Amino acid sequence: MSAEAADPAAVPRRRSRPRIDLRRLGRVALLGPVSRDRLPDAIGHVADAHRAHHPDADLAILHRAYVLAESSHRGQMRKSGEPYITHPLAVTLILAELGAETTTLTASLLHDTVEDTEVTLDQVREQFGEEVCYLVDGVTKLEKVDYGAAAEPETFRKMLVATGNDVRVMSIKLADRLHNMRTLTVMRPEKQARIAKVTRDVLIPLAERLGVQALKTELEDLVFAILDPEEYEDTRALIADATDGEDPLSAIADSVRATLREAGIGAEVLIRPRHFVSVHRVRRKRGELRPTDFGRLLVLVGEDADCYAVLGELHTCFTPVISEFKDFIAAPKFNLYQSLHTAVVGPEGAVAEVLIRTHRMHKVAEAGVVALGNPYAHDAATTATQAEPSDERADPTRPGWLSRLLDWQESATDPDTFWTTLRADLAQDREITVFRTDGRTLGLPAGASCVDAAYAQHGERAHACIGARVNGRLATLSTVLSDGDTVQLLLAQDTASGPSPEWLDHARTPAARIAITGWLSAHPDAPGPEAEGPAEPAADGPHPAAPARTRSGGRAANVLVDGSESPTRLAGCCTPVPPDEVVGIVVRGGAVTVHRQECPAVARMREIGRAPVATRWREEEDGWSDTAACRVTLVAESFGRPRLLADLTEAIATADAAIVSATVEPPSEQRVRHTYTLQLPDAAGLPALMRAMREVAGVYDVSRAQHPAATG
After folding, report:
1. In the annotation, is 116 catalytic?
2. Could you tell me which residues come within 8 angstroms of residue 426 by beta carbon, excluding any fewer than 6 positions away?
3. CA distances from 121 to 36, 130, 383, 525 (A)
4. Nearest Cα to 649, choosing from 640, 658, 641?
5. Are strands 582-586 and 671-680 parallel, antiparallel or unpaired?
6. Are 185 and 192 in contact (CB under 8 A)?
7. CA-CA distance, 6 to 184, in Å (whole number)?
8. Which of 124, 359, 641, 682 lies 20 to 30 Å from 146, alpha-carbon distance?
9. How far is CA 504 from CA 531, 588, 661, in A?
C-alpha cells in the first residue's frame, strides 16, 4: 500500500481535502437517499469536490445517478466488507478532485451497474443520455474479460479501443484501478502481485501518457509497496527521518518569494514533496540523497510570459545549475505536460529543483486529459450524429501516440505480439516530430528511424521503401531521426518488393514491427536477402535500405534455372545482368539466388556446402527481349572535387538510367567512393553507362559491386 494507505499521517497529502471515510459513507449509503431537498451525505462530498472545479455545475444528474447506483448495488458487498456502493463513490470522488466534468462523474457512478446489476444500457441511455451511456458501455466492455495471463492482452486491446474512442473511458478505468489498488490487501499475495505487475506495465504508463500525474504517482507508490516491499520500507524510513528535522527547502522558498516580490511578479511558491518512487529513483541515480532531494519548489503564475520572467529572476539572483534546465513550455511533452524545469543554489549552498508553470499548466500536469473536460461539448455536429453509440467517432483531444496505438492494434492479430509491442511502446517516454516534404508532420517515439517514418507515412506501401533523404541528404533506412528533421521516403516502383528482416533491428514503432513481421510471415519462401541465412550476411545479407526485390513467379527477369521452376531472384551483392556468366545458389525455402560467377559469395557458399545449380540467361527463343530492364549496382572511385556528385548523376540521367539508391562515403585521402543502385531500361546499355561515368572528370574507375551496397 502507499504511504497514505498504510499510515495516513506519515506524509502530508498534496491536496488540503481530507480523505473521505468510505466505511462511514457505506453505512450512510445503506440507509438510501434522504429528503429531496438536499443531496445524501454519501454523494455530497463528491458534489463539493465537483463544485470546487465547476461552480456552475448542475448537480441534479449526479443525484439521480447516485440514487440509481445505490439502489442497484444495494445488498452487494466488497471483499473488504464494505457496501459495494463505496467503490463507485470512491472512483467518482477521485475524478471529482481531479476536476472531471459532470458527464464523466455521472458515468463513473454508474460504471459497474450494467455489468453487476440488472440495469441495462437502454435504461442508462433513457435516463442520462447518449454520452453517459457511451462511457458506461466503454468501461463495461473493459470488465467483461477476466484478468489472467491469457486474458491480459485481449483485455488491454479492448481498453485501447475504448480509450481511443473517448479518453474519458480510460480516466474512469484509471480511477477504478487506483481505488482497487488502495484496497488490494484483502486479496491473496499472489493475486496482489499479479494485479500490481499489470498496473506497473500497462496502466501506469497509460496514466503517464494521458498526463494524469496525480493518479500515476499514487499508483506507482502502491505498486512499489507490493512488488518491492523492502526497498519501499527503506524509502519510507528515509522520508520519515527527513520530515523530522527542519526542511532546507523552506529557507530557499522564502528567498524565492522575496526575490519575486521585489521584482513585482505575482507568484505562489510551494514546496512539493516527492512521492516514494520519485525519492527511490533519485537515490538510485545519485547514490546518496541531499537534504533537498525530498521535494521540489513549485512556482505558480498567471501567464506564460510570467514563467520566463520568474526564470530570469531566479537565474539572475541565484546560481543556476544549467544542466538541469528544460523548457517544456516551448516544447510540451507528448502528454500535454508544460513547465519550466531548473535548479538553483540557495543561500546556504543547498541545491533546489524548481518547477515553474501557470495555474492552468499545473491543472493539466496533475489531471491531464481529465482537465480537458468533455471533448464533444462544443461539437454540435458530432452530438447530432450520435443517435446511436458509434465505435468510429474520433476524440479531438486524443494524443497522437494513442492514434498510432489504435492503428497498429488492428493489425496485431497475435495476442503475444500485441502484448509485447504494447509494453514496448508504452515504455517510450519521449516523442519527436519530423516533417514530411509536403509540410505535414509525423509523430514518432524518440529513437525512431527512417523505417518507422516510412510505415507511419505510407503504411504497407512502405514494404517497397528503398531509402530516404533526411534534411535533403541521402540516408539509409537505419538512420535515427531527430526532432525537427525533414524526411522524404523513397519507394521502389516494384510493388512486389518486400522488407528485409534486418529492418526489424531499426524499427521502434509497433506499426513498423507488426507490418514487417506480418509480411515476412506471409512470405516465408519469398526470395530475398534474408533467405541466405546467417552464414552469408557479408555476401548476400540484407541491408536496412537494401534495393527492392525483383520477382516474377518462379523466375527472375530473363533468367532460367535448369530443371527447376523455383522462385528466382538476382543477387543484390553483385547485381548480374546479361551477358554476365551466372550461377544459381539454392537458399532456404527452395528459392534460387542468381550470382555472377566471380562473386565472392559463390565461393563462400561452396565452402559451407551449398551446391550451385546451372543457370542461364534466356535466349530469344525463350522469349527474351533485348529491351529487358535490369537493376545493377555500380561503384565509382574518384578524386574529391566540387560538383562531382552533380556531374555523376547527370551522366547517369543522360544514359536513361534511374537512380534507385545512392551512397557517398566520407572522403579518405582526397578520394571518394560513390555507390549507386540503378535501374536500366536495357541491360545492353550498361557498358555505355559505365564509360560515361568514367569520363566524368575526377573519376578514375567504375566497377560492378561485389558486396552488399550501402544504399541510401
Report:
1. yes
2. 201, 202, 205, 206, 209
3. 26, 10, 18, 50
4. 658
5. unpaired
6. yes
7. 12
8. 124
9. 15, 20, 20
Q: Provide the 8-state DSSP code for 199.
A: I
Other beta carbons less than 10 A from residue 561's beta carbon: 21
Other CB atoms within a 10 A radius of the CB of residue 688 amount to: 11
As given in the structure block, the three cell numbers for residue 473 are 541528404
Residue positions counted in the chain: 712
Helices (H), 386-509: 400-409, 415-426, 450-458
Residue 20 CA to residue 547 CA, distance in Å, equals 65
- Residues 6+ positions from 205 with CB-CB distance below 8 Å: 426, 427
- Single out the residue of 256, 260, 252, 261 nearest to residue 352, CA to CA: 252
> How confident is the model over 100-159, as pLDDT tens digits?
999 999 999 999 998 888 889 999 999 999 989 988 988 877 665 444 444 455 556 666
CA distance 416 to 426: 15
Exposure pattern of 352-364 as b/e (b: 16+ CB <10 Å)? Answer: bbbbbbbeebbbb
Set 7, 48, 70, 115: catalytic member: 115
Angle, helices 86-98 vs 167-182, to 10°: value is: 120
**Element holding 680 (H helix, E strand):** strand 671-680
Q: What is the pLDDT of residues 196-226, one digit of tens each?
A: 988 888 788 888 878 899 999 999 999 999 9
This prediction's pTM = 0.60
The residue type of 595 is: H
Can you list the pairs that 195-201 forms with residues at least 24 positions away whose Cβ atoms lie under 8 Å?
195/147, 196/222, 196/223, 196/226, 196/227, 197/227, 198/147, 198/152, 199/223, 200/227, 201/423, 201/426
Query: Are 516 and 502 a contacting pair, CB within 8 Å?
Result: no
**Whether the Cβ atoms of residue 575 and residue 704 lie closer than 8 Å to each other:** yes
Whether the CB-CB separation of 571 and 513 falls below 8 Å is answered with: no
